[in-house]
Design goal:
Blueprint lengths: L3 H36 L2 H11 L5 E5 L2 H15 L4 E3 L2 H4 L12 E5 L9 H9 L4 E5 L5 H5 L2 E4 L15 H21 L3 H7 L3 H6 L3 H4 L8 E3 L4 H11 L3 E5 L5 E6 H6 L10 H4 L1 E2 L3 E2 L5 H11 L3 E6 L2 E7 H6 L4
Parallel strand pairs: 1-2, 1-3, 3-4, 4-5, 6-7, 10-11
Antiparallel strand pairs: 7-8, 8-9, 11-12
Helix pairs in contact: 1-7, 2-7, 3-7
């Protein structure tokens, strides 16, 4: 009977050629990306200038593996603030050309630069004065000849041992699309708030929620004036169910906070007759309404508290409980 240790050793030995192949593929593709990083220059800047000045959308297209990459590039552009969509070359020839209008630009992907399915798209773009940016490894190909701007991929070997399956070339295309998207994002000053507006769902959406999206305000705020007795402050504290009450001056500015912990520290027979100002903790931790909810969670966790008053110009405009963040998926 073979021991489990012997089986593991045999398994490791059997997989050594596979690991060698995997590492070779990753090394070849990484070298392609390094070459790409060194190669970008004037044409990349020209593409950024053209796209950032568009009144319309970026129409991204490609056939086969290049088409799959083109879909991803269009999605990334759109999600980072540049209107974009993918058009399949074959569908374009059967009516989808009508999606492309004046003010748009065509971003066409073809490693060989001779993809026949792109002909109708290129002809249409030339006919209606729609600028073409191509991504190709062939500077003398038909696509490059027809394009105003050529984003040239370095001549690097495909990771496929036969040199046939698109591997290194599609990795470079994908990375170049990311480079365009991020450079455009930074040019436009695209912010986390802008990103949230385009990603309201899922984990990204929850991470980019602001405090103002989750806070309680208006009549829900547990507030009492500094001169009230603790008996009255406790009524507010109990009614609002946050386990605390904010103590404010005549102008509504926050002076301090009374929490369950303050009650325990000041527990005595005369507690309920004392002034709230004499029991409160001065200078409580607060947060801005435009802060990210994730920042509020970090503050509450680091200080072992469960509530934050939300302040604008020294006046409390809301209160945020840790449970509000957790319910929204912010952690």
């Amino acid at each position: 009977m073979t021991s489990s240790g012997a089986s593991a050793q045999t398994g490791d030995k059997d997989t050594e050629p596979d690991l060698g192949t995997a590492r070779r593929v990753l090394r070849i593709e990484a070298e392609g990306l390094e070459a790409l990083a060194r190669s970008i220059g004037a044409q990349f800047f020209a593409a950024l200038d053209l796209i950032s000045g568009l009144s319309g959308r970026v129409v991204v297209t490609g056939m086969g593996k290049s088409g799959h990459v083109a879909r991803k590039i269009a999605s990334t552009l759109a999600s980072t603030g540049m209107p974009a969509f993918f058009v399949h070359p074959a569908e374009a020839s059967h009516g989808d050309l009508g999606m492309i209008v004046e003010g748009d630009a065509l971003l066409a992907l073809s490693n060989s630069g001779e993809t026949s399915e792109l002909v109708d798209l290129v002809d249409y773009a030339k006919r209606f004065n729609i600028p073409i940016i191509c991504m190709t490894s062939s500077p003398d190909g038909a696509l490059a000849e027809a394009s105003e701007i050529t984003l040239l991929l370095p001549d690097r070997e495909e990771a496929c041992p036969m040199g046939l399956a698109p591997t290194t070339s599609t990795t470079m295309m994908m990375a170049l699309g990311d480079a365009l998207s991020v450079a455009l994002l930074e040019r436009k000053g695209f912010s986390a708030e802008d990103f949230h507006a385009l990603h309201p769902g899922g984990k990204l959406g929850s991470r980019l929620l602001k405090v103002s999206d989750l806070m309680h305000d208006g009549d829900e705020l547990p507030l009492a004036s500094a001169d009230v007795t603790m008996a009255d402050a406790l009524i507010v504290m109990t009614a609002k169910s946050f386990g605390c009450v904010g103590i404010v001056d005549e102008a509504g500015a926050l002076l301090g906070i009374v929490t369950d912990g303050d009650l325990r520290r000041h527990m005595s027979a005369d507690l309920i007759g004392r002034r709230a100002a004499d029991v409160m903790t001065v200078g409580p931790t607060t947060i801005r309404p435009d802060a990210l909810a994730s920042e509020a969670v970090q503050i509450m966790n680091s200080r072992a508290i469960t509530n934050l008053f939300v302040m604008r110009d020294a006046v409390p405009v809301g209160i945020l409980h840790i449970h509000d963040c957790l319910r929204a998926g912010v952690a």
